Amino acid sequence: MATLVDALNDPAKKPVIIEDCLTLIDAEVKDKKGMGGMAVKAGYGAVKGIKPGFIRNVVEGLMPEFAEALAPIHDEATTKGEPISAYLVAQKERAADALLEVTDGKAAKSTNGLVKKTYSKLRGSAKKNVEAAIPRLGALIEKHV
Predict the structure, then answer these.
(1) What is residue 1's predicted lDDT score, i.e. its pLDDT?
(2) Which of the listed residues 25, 33, 64, 69 has the most CB atoms within 10 Å of its CB?
(3) pTM (whole model) above 0.85
(4) Is the distance from CB of 65 to CB of 102 less than 8 angstroms?
C-alpha cells in the first residue's frame, strides 16, 4: 500500500486530487452559514480574487506539507486496519491542528498583505472550519490512496 505522501504527490494522480481539493473547499465554503459563514465566504472571495488560479496554486503548494502532516494519522489508521475516513473523523482535532500548523507557518511567511490580513481575520474560527471539513477530506484521501 502506498504511503499518504507518495499517493498525494504521485504526478499521475496529483491533477485529479487538486481538482477534488478545490471542489471540497468550494463545498465547505458554500455550506457555511450565519455571520461566521459570511466572513468565510467574503474572505474566500477576496483571496480567490487576488489572481486567477491563486487557490489552485495554494492547494498545489500545500499538498506535500499537508500530506506529511497527516501521514502519522494515516499510518495509525492503516496499522489498526481502520478506514482513513472514519479514523480522521475520530481524530479531527488532531488532524485540524496538524493542517493549521502548516497554514500558520505559510501565512506567517507570506509577503501578500491581503492574504495575511484575511488569514488573520479568519484564523480564530479556522479550527472549527477545518474540523467540519474532515469528513470530506477523509473521503477524498480514501478515494485517492
Answers:
(1) 57
(2) 69
(3) yes
(4) yes
